[in-house]
Design brief:
- The chain is α+β, with helices and mostly antiparallel strands.
- It has a domain at about 10-60: Pemi-like Protein 1, Chain: D, CATH 2.10.260.
- The chain has helices at about 25-35, 55-70, 75-100; strands at about 40-45, 50-55.
- It has a two-stranded antiparallel sheet.
- The relative contact order is 0.07.
């Protein structure tokens, strides 16, 4: 995948903001960013610039950021599953206790 980098007139494109805030992203830019018409994108305001990412690019960036701060031997997925199972077990136990305390309805 190629990237359009640094501000240079060759990498610039003039566009007009249309009704409803619509902006056409040139085909060359869409190709460079690997985004297609109709695809969900993520926009982020950085200072006085708008950054545009495909949803997949945003996920990859987030994953890379997390990887910097989490030991490679640690599995966050396994930890989450274990926590969810433990919470489900607690909920079942609480529901069982509650149902035993309530008198049966006829």
């Amino acid at each position: 995948m190629s990237h359009i980098s640094s501000f240079h007139p060759k990498n610039s494109h003039h566009a007009k903001l249309q009704g409803g805030g619509r902006l056409v992203i040139p085909a060359e830019y869409r190709k460079a960013l690997d985004i297609s018409v109709g695809e969900d994108i993520v926009m982020r305001l950085e200072g006085d610039e708008i950054r545009i990412y495909s949803l997949q690019q945003a996920v990859r960036r987030a994953q890379a950021l997390v990887r910097k701060h989490v030991d490679k031997k640690r599995s966050l997925v396994d930890e989450l599953i274990a926590e969810r199972r433990q919470e489900a077990k607690r909920e079942i136990e609480e529901a069982t206790k509650y149902s035993k305390r309530r008198p049966a309805r006829d």
